[in-house]
Amino acid sequence: MRLLYSLLINTVMPMLHIVALFNKKMKLFVQGRTSVFSTLQEKITPADKVIWFHAASLGEYEQGLPVMEKMRMLYPSHKILVTFFSPSGYEIRKNTSAADVVVYLPMDTLKNAKKFLKLAHPDIAFFIKYEFWPNYLFELKKANVPTYLISGLFRPNQVFFKWYGSLYRKAFKSFNHFFVQYESSKQLISSIGFNNVTVSGDTRYDRVSRILEQDNHLPFIEDFTNGKTTVIFGSSWPKDEEMFMGFINKQPDTKFIIAPHTFGESHMESLRQNITKPIVFFTEKEGKNLKDYDVLVIDTIGLLTKIYSYADVAYVGGGFGTSGLHNILEPAAYGVPVVIGPNHKKFPEAKQLTDAGGCIVVHNQTETEAVLSRLTTEENYRNTTGRNAGDFVQRNRGAVYTILKHIQHEHSL
């Protein structure tokens, strides 16, 4: 089975180079891997002690970050190595100060795995959430590197629980321990013979709780909001915007901030054409009196987390269409009521936050407008929903402590 898997990976690799000729994201995916080994050779010496974190993309990185930061504090003499599989994670966090070395993870061939581990020689390895690469895991086991899964999430339809998932089940023996988010995940992984499992919760709650302690001051947002009720549409896609655009155009005496997930030229022009209220873009704001505008479009990255601190209401995108729900915990951490679309089944925190009374699910434009209208006009309802959201985040903290307590008990790095 491992031979067949490796053959498949080696067959796919040349095809990716062809796709890269026509696809910008795939081009980054392919080209970004060409310098991995030279980067490792340059930045990691044989004498270095290394802690390795692997994240599929940006969301997994954010889940691993609080553990990463704690490991940095506990083991300051170690270098932190972060690998990404996806360009959407690497391109945004390649210069993060949380790590000493950030690279793409080379494709999971036996040759790559051996070479990567020889150059990186980690003292301990962390895989985040649910991305597993058999050749890397087998080689980690062979090298006796303690390996952990953090914020693990398992579902019954995953290959690991099928008759044809034997390769992954064997690879799972490489893990010293599985730290999973929910009891259901523990039961699933236990059903295939693994009892080295702890329900630690989701490290994202620890992560988002800390944003309350940072400096979230943004003078230009204060100038824009001017003390008025403010609705923030975070990480929105065109399908989300179809649901709330009408509300923006007819809601009086309210400020709106849109932080789209993508801001290509055609998308930005569409927003400009479809919004009838005075609108200003972040990249065009200099020299303008922002309080004179009703809609602010954030056509840049890296500000949304702080912007949520100014929200009275937050709509989080991705729940319409198939793109996937974005981070609802950041606005919730600030005690802001959250509104989302119906496609959130793969995000257990969405159901839990909804059950806790801090999130409201809408299914169409009519519902979206009705819910946003109630939240912006009924202060008691808005405050109660927001308080429920903030309390929910605080109740779910503690995953990082559980993970590190266990690891420190088992290993001395």
What do these coordinates show?
With 413 residues, this protein is of the alpha/beta class. It has two domains: 2-201 and 398-410, Rossmann fold (3-Layer(aba) Sandwich); 213-395, 3-Layer(aba) Sandwich (Rossmann fold), CATH 3.40.50. The chain has helices spanning 2-19, 24-31, 36-43, 58-74, 87-93, 110-120, 134-142, 166-171, 183-190, 203-209, 219-225, 238-250, 265-274, 304-307, 329-333, 348-355, 365-377, 379-395, 399-410; strands at residues 50-55, 79-84, 101-104, 124-128, 147-152, 177-180, 197-199, 230-236, 255-260, 279-281, 295-297, 313-316, 338-340, 359-361. The strands form two sheets. Strands 3-2-1-4-5-6-7 form a seven-stranded parallel sheet, with helices on both faces. A seven-stranded parallel sheet has the order 10-11-9-8-12-13-14, with helices on both faces. Helix 4 (58-74) packs across helix 10 (203-209), helix 6 (110-120) crosses helix 7 (134-142) and helix 12 (238-250) crosses helix 17. The protein is globular and about 65 Å long.
